[in-house]
TrEMBL record:
<protein>
    <submittedName>
        <fullName>Multisubunit sodium/proton antiporter, MrpG subunit</fullName>
    </submittedName>
</protein>
<comment type="similarity">
    <text>Belongs to the CPA3 antiporters (TC 2.A.63) subunit G family.</text>
</comment>
<dbReference type="GO" id="GO:0015385">
    <property type="term" value="F:sodium:proton antiporter activity"/>
</dbReference>
<keyword id="KW-1133">Transmembrane helix</keyword>
<keyword id="KW-0472">Membrane</keyword>
<dbReference type="InterPro" id="IPR005133">
    <property type="entry name" value="PhaG_MnhG_YufB"/>
</dbReference>
<keyword id="KW-0812">Transmembrane</keyword>
<feature type="transmembrane region" description="Helical">
    <location>
        <begin position="6"/>
        <end position="30"/>
    </location>
</feature>
<dbReference type="Pfam" id="PF03334">
    <property type="entry name" value="PhaG_MnhG_YufB"/>
</dbReference>
Length: 122
């Protein structure tokens, strides 16, 4: 088997694994009970799935400009997904949309009681 055949097989495996991670993330978003666990399912496996798909696609295309664009997409996703997940979780906690009976550790309740700020738009 030549190197191109090996790269094609490896690229196909990465594409399949990445799509499987994205499918698991979508199922987790639909099946998990509350906002915080759904956010976890939407950020962690989805980012890993995107990285695997981008790696497989760059192995299949074998083009430097396409690989550079895919690296830029992955870096942007790695920079924005954790920050947006954190901000959504924090805002939902402040708005009272978190099921506190499912929390094992609640580190924000003490700091939230000390702050007297408005809760946002009605």
């Amino acid at each position: 088997m030549s190197w191109t055949g090996v790269l094609d097989v490896l690229g196909a495996v990465l594409l399949l694994l990445g799509s499987l991670f994205s499918l698991v993330a979508a199922i987790g978003v639909l099946r998990f009970p509350d906002l915080l666990t759904r956010m976890h399912a939407a950020t962690k496996p989805q980012v890993l799935g995107l990285m695997l798909v981008a790696g497989g696609l760059s192995l299949e295309l074998r083009d430097l400009s396409a690989t550079a664009l895919l690296v830029l997409v992955v870096v942007a996703q790695l920079a924005t997904a954790p920050v947006s997940g954190h901000m959504v979780g924090r805002a939902s906690f402040r708005a009272g949309q978190v099921r506190r009976d499912l929390l094992l550790v609640d580190e924000l309740s003490g700091s939230q009681a000390a702050q007297e700020e408005p809760r946002g738009a009605p």
